[in-house]
Amino acid sequence: MDLLGAWRAFVNVSERGSFTEGAAATRVPQSVASRRIAALEKHLGERLFDRSSRGAILTQFGRDLLPSAKRLVRLADDMEHEAEQARLNPLRLAVPEVCAVRDLARLAAEARQNGVYLDFHAAPPAERAELVRSREVRAALVAVPPSDATWSVRLGLAGTADLPVRTVYVETLRAGRAARSSRRSRIWLQPEDDVPHIRDRMFRIRDAVGLQPAQVGVSATLTAATAEVFAFADLLLCSPGQASELGLHWRPLGEIPLVRGFDVAGDDAERIRDRLWHAIARCLGADSQETA
């Protein structure tokens, strides 16, 4: 028996004194409202109405139960309203600062089609992790090693010159092999890549091939790093999508494959992963063959 539906029919019929009008208010046929109330009377073991030509008249038993029935129906209506509001409340999601506005807008639009309303908070990796730990956001796209990644994004080196080689090796920037100038070319890491599984590996490559310490550095912002690339023909460690957006020429890194790994953390992690897997992959610049 639909117990809530039966109580709703009971309240509507009692308020209107008519099975016909009460059924209309309940948005069911009169026969359905009558069956529900009859089943409720059988369940309770007492009649709720005296049925006569004058309409539906409450029995004393029915009058005694009416206040509680009204409270039950109001509570059910309130819960449905709150559930709808909770569904529409924006889910605050911490995202990498490297995500382009266009890609975030497409992610938000696709999320709405899947019943998720997103409110983005762009932040660097360490801050995103802290935001989700402190529950200032309901979920975050966090930086993780490639082995733990749900989404993976290839990294390479990008510069203003369209190099004739398919792969760029860090060792070509070593003194004696680089072009003669008062300033040696540098490789810049942006804040998104200032994480151990990327930064430390780049430093190890730098030391292994004999570059000067200053030739691989971490910039405070992507804008500052890109400015160095345009001003001094330096190289930026970035994804193919970022390079295209910045108007730079991208090549894979020769010595080792470097990858940005992402996972989603937080209370709503499973819902986001299940409903928005492909949309997030596109936003991050990952594609199907790069994503676990």
TrEMBL record:
It comes from the Bacteria. Keywords: DNA-binding, Transcription, Transcription regulation. Belongs to the LysR transcriptional regulatory family. GO terms for molecular function: DNA-binding transcription factor activity; transcription cis-regulatory region binding. Signal peptide: none annotated. InterPro entries: LysR_HTH_N, WH-like_DNA-bd_sf, WH_DNA-bd_sf. The keyword Transcription applies. This is LysR family transcriptional regulator. Residues 1-59 form the HTH lysR-type domain.
